[in-house]
Structure formats: C-alpha cells, structure tokens
Amino acid sequence: MIGLIAMKELRLLFASPLAWVVLAFLQGFFAWVFLSQLQTWLELQQQIAAQPGAPGVTEWVVAPLFATATIVLLMVVPLLSMRLVAEERRAQTLPFLMSAPVSITQIVLGKYLALLLFLALAVGLILLMAFALFAAGRLDLGLLAANALGLLLMVGSFAAVGLYLSCLTAHPLVAAIGTFAVLLGLWLVNMATRDPNSLLHLLSLMRHFENFSKGIVAVPDLAYYLVLVVLFLFLSIRRLDGDRLRA
User: Fold this and answer.
1) pLDDT exceeds 60 at position 54
2) CB 153 within 8 A of CB 225
C-alpha cells in the first residue's frame, strides 16, 4: 500500500510543471558547476600534480559539486514538499484520504517515499555527471559513494521536515516558508556558538555532512540524519492521527 501511495504521489508530481521545471533547473545548474570545476581543474592540472598529496579529480570536481547541491536542494525541497498534505487540506480532500482503508503511517510513508524518490533522481543526475569522468581518468569511488550517501541522507532529512510542516497548514506557501526556516536554522545552528565542544554542533546539518564530503562515513553522522527523519515522520503521523480523531 505504501508503494501504491508513493506511485500515485509521483504521478501527481510529474503531472505538474513544477517537477519538470525543478529537474531542468537542477540539471542545468549542476552541469554549469560541474563544467566550471572541471575547466578549472584542467587549467591547473600541472600545478596541482606538482603538489605533495595532490587532490585528484574527485576531490577537485565532484566533492565541491555535492557540497553545492546541499545548498541548492535546501532551497528547492520546500517547494516540492509544501503541497504534500497542505494541498489536500486546502482542497478539502484530506478527510477522504484519511477515511480510506489505509493507516496514517502508510499515508505518511507513501508521501515521504514519493518525494524521496524524486530527490534520489536529482542525486542520480549528479552521479551520472561524475561517472562521465571515467573517460578522462580514475575516480575515487569511496569518496564519491560517501558524498552520494551523505547527500541522500541530507535530502531525506529535508523531505521529512517538509512533510511535517506541510501537515501543519492548509497553505502550501506557508509550509514552504516554514520548512525553509527550520532547515536554515538547523543548517546554521552551530554558528551561534564559538565553543568547539558546544552541543549545538550536534544539531547542525552542515557539520554532519562535512565528514561525508571528506569520504568519512561515521556512525554519529548516520545516526543524526536517521533520527531526524524518524522524528519528523513520527510527528507527521501524530499530527494526522490527531486530525483523524477530530474529524
């Protein structure tokens, strides 16, 4: 049932111009960043190769592309997630959905999976550009895999936050603004302190991605993103359960 709901949401997403415009924008922007980094690397290749422990093409071209993608997707995901539930609430179709013979958990997970699959497609486009570099040299597959995993976990967190904010309102624009505000707060929270041992660093989306960008897959970073996803999915389920009880 979760798969059916996800497929239905994906069809609705691709039936609107928004999904295609977003994909076209992401592909165009990422291609521009990729080609700019590649051109710089080719121009400086001799100087880079002369350095001890010189960075390879993966570190010079691919890792910065993934880092840029985290910022761009932070701004894009709220636009994609804002309609997940808020649009149903505004169109007054949410009571019909909740009265269907499916659980609230299945509804939430289906909608979340649909958005996650769409975002995975965006990440896949970045990987295709990276794999094109095989024609010119060797890639650090470990570093590439760590960056891809980190980006998937991060956008999964974005999607969970966006879904929850969409559950709180009948106005998609309000959901989008609220999602962006929460994500930006989690992104910059560690800047509120200069203490390197502050607990605020544990809450930072950006700080936990840094290890992935260096090719390090650490359990605390994995746990952070997974806890964030589970927390906001749980809050979404509780919110819609409350709506069902009040209906």
Assistant:
1) no
2) yes
pLDDT at 83: 86
Specify the pLDDT at position 49.
59
Q: Please, what is the average pLDDT of the chain?
A: 85
Q: Which residues of 206-218 are buried (b: 16+ CB within 10 A; e: fewer)?
A: bbbbebbbebeee
Residue carrying structure tokens 């093409």: 57
Instruction: Kindly state the average pLDDT of the residues 171-186.
Output: 91
Q: Which two tokens stand for residue 97?
A: 């959905």
Residue 179 CA to residue 185 CA, distance in Å, equals: 10
Residue 223 confidence (pLDDT): 93
Predicted pLDDT at 88: 80
Q: HEC states along the chain?
A: CHHHHHHHHHHHHHHCHHHHHHHHHHHHHHHHHHHHHHHHHHHCHHHHHCCCCCCCHHHHHHHHHHHHHHHHHHHHHHHHHCCCCHHHHHCCCHHHHHCCCCCHHHHHHHHHHHHHHHHHHHHHHHHHHHHHHHHCCCCCHHHHHHHHHHHHHHHHHHHHHHHHHHHCCCCHHHHHHHHHHHHHHHHHHHHHCCCCCCHHHHHCHHHHHHHHHCCCCCHHHHHHHHHHHHHHHHHHHHHHHHHHHHC
